[in-house]
Amino acid sequence: QLFRQLADAPTVPRPIVANRQLAEAVAIEPNRSAAGGWWKQAVVPLLVVVAVLGLIALIVLPGRQQTPAASDPLLVAVLPFEQQPPGESYLADGLWDDTRAALSRNPSLRVLGRATTRAMAERKLSPDEYRRRFGVDYVLEARIRRSGNQVATLVSLTRTSDGVAIWEDRLRGRLGDPMALEEAIASGIEGKLRGRLARGGGRRADQIATIPEVYALYGEARSMLRTRDVDHARRAESLLRQAVRLDPNYAPAWSSLAYAMHLSDWAPVERSAADARTFAAVRRALTLAPNLAEGHGTLAILESGNSQAAEQSMRRAVALDPSYAEGWNWLGNALHASYRYADAIAAFERAIEIDPLWFPPVQNLVWSANEGRDRAALDRLFGTLRQAGASAELVETVRAEDLLNRGDFSGSLATLIAVEGDGVRSPRRAAFQGTADALMMLDYPDEAARVSGFPPWYGQLVRGERLPPSMLDGRPISPSDFFSSIYFSPFASRAMVNRAQAPQLVSIYRSAFRSPDEFISLTRRNDALNYLAPTIAVALKSTGNADEARYILVAAARYAESGLRTAPASRQPAADLALIRAAQGEREQALQLLTKAVSRGWLPDGRRQ
């Protein structure tokens, strides 16, 4: 009768009715015997209901044995922790409970119940049996080893679908306050699982769970970092420090904190100690979330800046998250540094497609389009800006950038002044770099320093009127600091050579680098080899180290020559190689290359002799 009702009905409500009939039968005649036949009215419909509901469950509700949707929480079985040597198990039990609690607070995860887990652990179920019986996605196991006050926790995470151990780690601690140690280890396990088990692989910040307060702090800080303003970067750094205090395991906050520290330390001399702090923050982010695109992009910027050495890491970042506009912008910079202007333009256009009114890729595209002599790319850019409803300020700032790259420095500066309204005293961040560059190229280094926020001695150093300082902000400038920034190193090196301080420059060089190969490698990664190699070579020659000078110049020439082959119509590779040839003593070839560069619109940018 039930099957006939189901066959005739458009929906499936009948099992509820049959269940009610069973309940009424039991309630009216609870003592009727089997011989009385009540089971024919009650048990048979019950069996039918069970069969139908089971069939519906198989068809409509496949359960955890199917692949869960991306938004479904993953189910983790945290097996009771094992203590070695066996005996006092209070530490293992405490760590087990704290780890279960830490994982349970993550909305992306569910934890198999305590009693069920303990019972199944005694039966030594395989990972696949956990999957088939309970729909468990991952099994977490840990062994606690104690030696005196030292505690080591060996943790492994196994994927139940194939039995592969996808993560293993060793967490160490000292047994002082057992409660504090348990909480620290449990938090460490949760943090390292959160990014690995996040939906989508934890490639984007929004895929990794945290509390609303941390999301809010992170979002506000990210909006400030996108302005590239130093004061905003410092404010962002403060917000992100609050975020990691609230949630030390939120990887995106650590990655953005590293970039905020990098931006807020704006000075002509970058600090190697500051770099150590930024590296520690971004590496913590990638320890927590190995697939975080933002983390890989930030690490590439810290390691290689905008040089071509950043390309591989940036490609990995945008492959992890194709919507990562900042990664596409940084990738474009790396491609530009290797003279691959067409590829750089394509990367900048991807960033602009994602965020049409964000000014860094817009300005960078102008830079690459002029070097690659691609006016069509500039026409596309202005069309995109008009279609996106760009402000007059942004459009005019881009025009000023175009004038700057075409060699009309005064026209560029006049356009920027008109955009700013209050002259060059306090340019907005969108016009900041162009204003400083135009002033530098017009031989107003004091004004460029003021716009940049650099110290008052900076203009004198650029003009070669003074030697570089040995202290900055009350701290000594170390040899590694000396060579850290293209805003300082080329001018400082040139001033020392021109003011008869070549031996002192060679001494700084030898303290900073263990070999000429290390100098070549590190300055190339900072995109400073072409700036520095000729000056360092001149200093080495003057102190009787001609072979080492020749070695460095040959390496620098090789990279510049590759640029000429890659972009034969471009002006910058020819200018770079001209300076190297001059240092090599090949004056005629240097003049020919320089003539070629100037005929294509090249003019000195202030960093070269």
How would you characterize the overall build of this protein?
The protein is an alpha/beta fold. 63% of the residues lie in helices and 7% in strands. The protein is built from 30 helices and eight strands. It has helices at residues 2-8, 14-28, 38-60, 90-104, 114-122, 127-134, 178-197, 212-225, 230-246, 251-264, 272-288, 293-304, 311-320, 325-337, 341-354, 359-371, 375-388, 392-405, 409-420, 429-441, 445-452, 458-462, 479-482, 489-498, 502-512, 516-525, 529-542, 546-566, 572-583, 587-599; strands spanning 74-78, 82-84, 109-111, 138-147, 150-159, 165-174, 471-472, 475-476. Strands 1, 2, 3, 4, 5 and 6 form a six-stranded mixed sheet that branches. Strands 7-8 form a two-stranded antiparallel ribbon. β7 (471-472) and β8 (475-476) form a beta hairpin. α10 packs antiparallel against α11, α14 runs antiparallel to α15 and α16 (359-371) runs antiparallel to α17. The chain is elongated. It starts with a helix and ends in a 10-residue tail after the last helix. 44% of the residues are buried.
Explain briefly what this protein structure is.
By secondary structure, this protein is α/β, with parallel strands linked by helices. The protein is built from 30 helices and 8 strands.
- Classify the oligomer: single chain
Q: How many strands in all?
A: 8
Residues in helices, as a percent range: 55-70%
Shape: elongated
Strand fraction equals 5-15%
Largest sheet: 6 strands, mixed
Radius of gyration: 33 Å
Count of DSSP H/I helices: 30
- Low-confidence spans: 11-44, 46-70, 422-427
pLDDT averaged residue by residue? 83
